[in-house]
Amino acid sequence: DAKTTQPTSMDCAEGRAANLPCNHSTISGNEYVYWYRQIHSQGPQYIIHGLKNNETNEMASLIITEDRKSSTLILPHATLRDTAVYYCIVRVPEARSINTGTASKLTFGTGTRLQVML
Amino acid sequence: NAGVTQTPKFRILKIGQSMTLQCTQDMNHNYMYWYRQDPGMGLKLIYYSVGAGITDKGEVPNGYNVSRSTTEDFPLRLELAAPSQTSVYFCASSPRDRVDFGPGTRLLVL
């Protein structure tokens, strides 16, 4: 799995958009970009994932550059409850590795600690 | 669906004791994982399974064993607990393209 680089920490005012960057310059063609977050000591929570097109769901938007070497997770209106550690991960999803009988494991780095402030 | 459930939520073990961390998912997912997370650190993969009867080692398997006799259950066994195994343990399962995590088991070995 490709390695990712994220800022250690970021601050964001409540109600503003939080833009979390991630560099993954060695991503391969079949690897997807995943975002997870971990609030305090809870289990990691899936946010969104994508291959090359921009994606949006009820939680966030994912913007992937055309060369796929970097991406940005956007929380459109950050709230205090969005304070968490955010992990950017690149991997081949299980559906794409089913024929090999192997799983492309989630490799968690240290992530970005997002602090949402009043 | 209850999702991924883990028991117990918290446990204190003495050095040398053994225990089994239970993990169950009711979503008929083939892929299941065990991770550990030490304080202030990221998650590390212990073992994973791609289906009933198939398991494989992850990044930090030493001191642990797993089994996968059914699709639903993926227990993690600690045979001789050591202080280095003090951690939070997360079980996870995957349908086809995302991994869902359980709430975790906090283990303290004294």
Tell me the fraction of residues in β-strands of chain A, as a range.
35-45%
The quaternary structure here is heterodimer
Count every beta strand of chain A, where a strand is a DSSP E run of 2 or more residues: 9
Strand fraction band of chain B?
over 45%
- The tally of helices of chain A reads 0
Share in helix of chain B:
under 10%
Main sheet overview of chain A? 5 strands, mixed
Morphology of chain A: globular
Largest sheet of chain B: 7 strands, mixed
Q: Which spans of chain B have pLDDT < 50 for at least 5 consecutive residues? A: none
Mean model confidence by pLDDT of chain B? 93
Order of helices and strands of chain A: EEEEEEEEE
For the termini of chain B, the CA-CA separation is 36 Å
* Number of E-state strands of chain B: 11
What's the overall geometry of chain B? Answer: globular
Low-confidence residue ranges of chain A:
none
Q: Nearest-angstrom radius of gyration of chain A?
A: 14 Å
Structural class of chain A: mainly beta
What is the CA-atom radius of gyration of chain B, in angstroms? 13 Å
Helix content of chain A: under 10%
Features:
heterodimer, A: 118 residues, five-stranded mixed β-sheet, four-stranded antiparallel β-sheet, 9 strands, 42% strand, B: 110 residues, mainly beta, seven-stranded mixed β-sheet
Please explain how this structure is put together.
The complex is a heterodimer of chains A (118) and B (110). Chain A has 118 residues and is mainly beta. In chain A, 0% of the residues lie in helices and 42% in strands. Chain A has strands at residues 9-13, 18-23, 32-38, 45-50, 55-56, 61-64, 70-75, 84-91, 112-117. Chain A starts with 8 loop residues before the first strand and ends with a strand. Chain B is built from no helices and eleven strands. Chain B has strands at residues 4-7, 10-13, 19-25, 31-37, 43-51, 54-57, 64-66, 76-78, 87-94, 100-101, 105-109. In chain B, the strands form two sheets. In chain B, strands 2, 4, 5, 6, 9, 10 and 11 form a seven-stranded mixed β-sheet that branches. Chain B has a four-stranded antiparallel β-sheet with strand order 1-3-8-7, with no helix packed on it. The model of chain B has no long low-confidence stretch (mean pLDDT 93). The chains are: A mainly beta (118), B mainly beta (110). At the A-B interface, β4 of A face β4, β5, β9 and β10 of B.
